[in-house]
Amino acid sequence: MTTASSPLNGFPDRVPPAEVEDVELYHAKSWITRWVFSQDAKIIGIQYATTATAIGLVALVLSWLMRLQLGFPGTFDFITPAEYYQFITMHGMIMVVYLLTALFLGGFGNYLIPLMVGARDMVFPYMNMLSYWIYLLAVLVLVASFFAPGGPTGAGWTLYPPQAILSGTPGGTGSGIILMLVSLILFIIGFTMGGLNYVITVLQARARGMTLMRMPLTVWGIFTATVMALLAFPALFVSAVMMLFDMLLGTSFFMPALVEMGELAKHEGGSPLLFQHLFWFFGHPEVYIVALPAFGIVSDLISVHARRNIFGYRMMVWAIVIIGALSFIVWAHHMYVSGMNPWFGFFFATTTLIIAVPTAIKVYNWLLTLWRGDIHLTVPMLFALAFIVTFVNGGLTGLFLGNVVVDVPLSDTMFVVAHFHMVMGVAPIFVIFGAIYHWYPKITGRMLNEAMGQIHFWVSFLGAYLIFFPMHYLGLIGVPRRYHELGPTSFIPESAATLNAFITIVALIVGAAQMLFLFNLAWSIRHGRPSGPNPWRAASLEWQTPETPPGHGNWGDTLPVVHRWAYDYNVPGAAEDFIPQTVPPSDTAATGEHR
Amino acid sequence: MEAIAPHAQNAAPPRPGGLHGFVLDWAADQRVFKGVSWGKAMMWIFLLSDTFVFGCFLLGYMTMRMSTTEPWPNASEVFALEIFGTHMPLILIAIMTFVLISSSGTMAMAVNAAYRRDRRLTATLMIVTALFGATFVGMQAFEWSKLISEGVRPWGNPWGAAQFGSAFFMITGFHGTHVTIGVIFLLIVARKVWRGDYDSGRRGFFTSRSGRYEIVEITGLYWHFVDLVWVFIFALFYLW
């Protein structure tokens, strides 16, 4: 028991003795086991991130094709209505599941959790490795559906039955929908293997002195999101299995009796509503599975780059946990137009609006962290600030759509598209960009190019607003979503077409800016300015590794001992404007916060 | 049971119980669940996740059963057997349930033997448990083939709602898969116990980590869970 009390400030260094023996690390013996079938969480994280980015590029190209069709209808003959639906479906599913979920939890989770809590690796490295390879398999199955006869499924990312497996839907009776469902099942199996690792590493493998309430909010966000994913993905798993049986075995879980192409279909007595409930019991927590890691990461970015401790740390933690819990009882707000008892609508509208309270607490705390801070407008900070703006914007339209009477007329219009792209598309992606600019120096030892970063930021930020802000207006005047071509209507003015063309041009420019970002990632590995171990002068544990990039086992010979929270910035009386988590109270003249 | 998780016995001071102890554990560093190994904690979290899988299956089944337009077949008649001229409703299911519950008993005894480092007894009891499990799966196969021969299919059956067959094959099939995986897992661990892997510190083929006798208890957790799920399937599918 090290109870050396400091003569300087009277705070004893209370660090309990080690409870967990140092782990047996897997030591790679060959190039293959070191870099390919790696059991090192850092390599697995990079593998996850690379794969997610690659499949995300496919989804980006799909969004260009959709925008080309919407902006200049009739110009591009090769985009048929069927293909347009396929593009919508694959764009949505890839972005939500295979890019955002995999990148936040598999990518950042793997890389950051062991480093931030002071562990040598994830607790079960072999299972962690399997998690990545099953994820890769899921992605390959998904990609295979593009080349399947009939193409990928065009059922919309929600895959609503009965239309998802009927012949009128692209890929509905071929292998498109089957490959989609198999890929989802594989993704869930792979994710479960990784997710168990993340949860147990946070709960059971922290460094000495690292209490839960000293963890950086990044870890809190990823941890809570992973717990939610472990409880929400089962619903998607079950609905995917049931729909696969409806498709392959001719069962009628979700399929009612109906007439298909003039003939009575083989199904009878199933409930399409059951699918919607199962899907959204997964689908709504999924929104927060993506948002909570973003909340956590953005808190850390703001604190580091504004050189201030995060305002209301404890409330930030509890807000994350409460949002996570509440998100399990709001799912039917996606189903207002599906028909339900008005009392249920009342219940789900109420719970939906209640979520705004902890979310607003977080937004206020970010602003109060910035208030009178020493704000450095670095690229990560710019992206963090952009997140707050876009998230508040998308969150406010969420309040519109959470109300039944407002949702019903706005449902299935471009307003909904604008809302969810703002809140769970643009906002989390900005956090991902900010996080990459922030942690790239730790991963590679070099800074990303600042000039390219500034161009990337301004084009992406202004462009995202120019794309999605007008869409609210399009939705309000009644432009429907998921339409291949509007055609003549009595209520949509000609100017909507002009606006659509404008949005398309901006979308292409924003897309080009992402190519610049990818080039920056590759270019800076060799040509970036050497960063040193802690270029942002950050206090959290991952910047205190003995090597940069962190070596095998992360911490050299001895595990770190944590003495304080991750947010000791500009502590009065301290020699520097930050105090790393590993500095004991007796080593600094400061009387900072010792939580 | 003093010998649980020997690595966790680093002379920690006694911890208070009750709500105070709960708060202290969650406020402590390093670990939330004191004295609980990574493997055991992971199995518990996995079982929580798996509970949601079975929960969704069973809730989906109940929703279908309530919303379907055709009458639901009478389970006690469907699952009845003629034995020596006597008509016995649900007799096979009763035997299956008895076998599975018994296997939980032998599993618990195996865990006890493992912590007493009685290798032979542990391995024997685990093999007995696996045999019970295999018997259960075998009887399930008999039940499936009987129903199939009577005309029950995933897409329909002679007695009423088509969802009866769909839900039956899906839920019992998914549970039977769990039992089968458990049997395979039990046999693998029994072999390692018999060979003395957990005394010699022999490293796992894939993981390159040496195992501990605790794996018997972790296997047991999974086995008891599968058993518990069966109780719910029994109550909600067969007795309802």
Task: Provide keyphrases for this structure.
heterodimer, A: 595 residues, mainly alpha, Cytochrome C Oxidase, Chain A, 14 helices, disordered C terminus, B: 240 residues, Four Helix Bundle (Hemerythrin (Met), subunit A), two-stranded antiparallel ribbon, disordered N terminus
What's the SSE blueprint?
The complex is a heterodimer of chains A (595) and B (240).
Chain A (H helix, E strand, L loop, with lengths): L30 H6 L4 H31 L9 H37 L7 H20 L30 H30 L12 H32 L10 E2 L2 E2 L7 H34 L7 H14 L15 H29 L8 H24 L1 H7 L3 H31 L5 H27 L18 H33 L68
Antiparallel strand pairs in A: 1-2
Helix pairs in contact in A: 2-3, 2-4, 2-14, 3-5, 3-6, 3-7, 3-12, 4-5, 5-6, 6-7, 6-8, 7-9, 7-10, 7-12, 8-9, 9-10, 10-12, 10-13, 12-13, 13-14
Chain B lengths: L17 H10 L10 H30 L7 H4 L1 E4 L2 E4 L1 H25 L3 H31 L13 H33 L1 H4 L13 H26 L1
Antiparallel strand pairs in B: 1-2
Helix pairs in contact in B: 2-6, 2-8, 4-5, 4-8, 5-6, 6-8
Characterization of this structure:
The complex is a heterodimer of chains A (595) and B (240). In chain A, strand 1 and strand 2 form a beta hairpin. In chain A, strands 1-2 form a two-stranded antiparallel ribbon. Chain A has 595 residues and is mostly helical. Chain A has a single domain, classed as Up-down Bundle (Cytochrome C Oxidase, Chain A). By secondary structure, chain B is mainly alpha-helical. Chain B has 8 helices and 2 strands, in the order H-H-H-E-E-H-H-H-H-H. In chain B, helix 2 packs antiparallel against helix 6 and helix 5 packs antiparallel against helix 6. Chain B is globular, with a radius of gyration of 22 Å. The two termini of chain B are 40 Å apart. At the A-B interface, helix 5, helix 6 and helix 7 of A face helix 2 and helix 6 of B.
